[in-house]
Design a protein that fits this description.
The protein is mostly helical. The protein has a single domain, classed as Na+/H+ antiporter like fold (Up-down Bundle), CATH 1.20.1530. The protein contains 19 helices and no strands. The protein has helices spanning about 1-15, 25-40, 40-60, 70-80, 85-90, 95-105, 105-120, 125-135, 140-150, 155-180, 185-215, 220-225, 230-245, 250-255, 255-285, 285-295, 300-310, 315-340, 345.
Length: about 350
């Protein structure tokens, strides 16, 4: 009788307590692990680069290069879910769009060319990586930081779509012009790479969104699915960064001065794009549109750039893009923080057209 009572109590306690293999708890844990890199990206980036560097010193990670294209597609695909080409085709904000495209495809590539020919010809693939960055403006960070800065979010979305489409069409020809005399540029292969890492995720993303819309509202899609997208993209980016750093580890150790020069070139490049965009925005646009312009010119599509650099020119070019990742995210975050403390950055000293 006493043993039976003990078994009954044990059965009750087991029913009342959550089972250790409860599927809902496992899903929550998996979601937290998936989103961890995106939430702690500022910490994940240097850790991944450090692990990649030491891994490359003790083992050959060259086999990872064969996975760079599918991982790149996986990384970009979530960002394309909900992509709307119609946002670019509407005539609103045409003056701002034209200004952004004019800067992104005249002065920004010119700056990359001058910096590359001046400092990176010891390794033309690094120059190629910088050139790719200069030709692929805007990213999802453009919209996010424009919103955080109190800028024109709707205009930022339009500038992002316009920059993405223009980059896919113009990048191969610009690459031939900018770096064709220093590294081999196969325009057909470059177009194929862009189609693979841009157009394929774009088609998959729009198709996925259309299928989801048959069952869910936009708000339900945002709540149920969109929360996972940054985690998937961040994991893909960290894989590409690990591959780029680990496959170049021996070279970094042998030529630390070249890495230092590449980093200084990146700092100069970002400094120029911020100053250029602020100067034009301050002169011709109001505060909201100016911040959309700044973040559409200064921020580059690094996720696509690193994938295109790796598939078109190799890990050295991808390494150059990798150096821009912490600079881009930190500079944009600092600008948002400084906005409320600076009379100039907050727009209190802004001259409106």
């Amino acid at each position: 009788m006493r043993h039976a009572l003990r078994r009954d109590k044990a059965d009750v306690s087991q029913r009342d307590s959550p089972h250790p293999t409860d599927p809902s708890q496992a899903v929550k844990v998996m979601k937290q692990l998936l989103l961890l890199p995106a939430r702690q990206l500022a910490l994940a980036l240097p850790i991944t680069m450090a692990i990649g560097f030491f891994a490359g010193l003790i083992m050959d990670t060259g086999e990872l290069k064969r996975y760079m294209v599918p991982v790149t597609i996986m990384m970009i695909y979530p960002n394309m879910i909900g992509f709307k080409l119609s946002d670019m085709l509407s005539l609103s904000q045409s003056r701002l769009v034209f200004t952004s495209l004019a800067l992104n495809y005249t002065l920004v590539p010119l700056a990359a060319y001058l910096l590359g020919t001046g400092f990176l010809l010891r390794d033309p693939e690094l120059f190629a990586g910088l050139a790719i960055m200069s030709l692929l403006p805007t990213s999802n960070m453009t919209v996010a930081f424009t919103t955080l800065a109190g800028g024109n979010t709707r205009a930022a979305v339009k500038l992002t779509v316009a920059g993405l489409v223009a980059g896919a069409l113009l990048a191969p020809w610009y690459l031939l012009l900018l770096v064709g005399q220093y590294v081999p540029v196969d325009v057909g292969a470059t177009l194929q790479s862009i189609a693979t890492v841009v157009l394929v995720p774009m088609v998959l993303g729009t198709t996925t969104y259309s299928l989801l819309r048959k069952r869910y509202t936009p708000q339900e899609i945002q709540e149920r699915f969109a929360t996972y997208f940054p985690g998937i993209s961040s994991c893909g980016m960290l894989f590409l960064i690990f591959t780029a750093v680990s496959t170049n580890a021996q070279r970094i150790l042998a030529q630390p001065d070249l890495l230092a020069i590449a980093l200084l070139v990146q700092i100069a490049f970002y400094g120029f794009t911020y100053l250029l965009a602020f100067a034009v925005g301050w002169k011709f646009f109001d505060v909201g549109d100016s911040y959309a312009l700044v973040f559409s010119v200064a921020l580059r599509s690094l996720a696509i750039s690193i994938g295109l650099a790796a598939t078109t020119f190799g890990p050295n070019a991808a390494l150059m893009v990798t150096l821009g990742i912490p600079l881009q995210s930190q500079s944009a975050a600092w600008l948002v923080r400084l906005k409320g403390r600076s009379k100039l950055l907050s727009g209190r000293a802004w001259s409106k057209p």
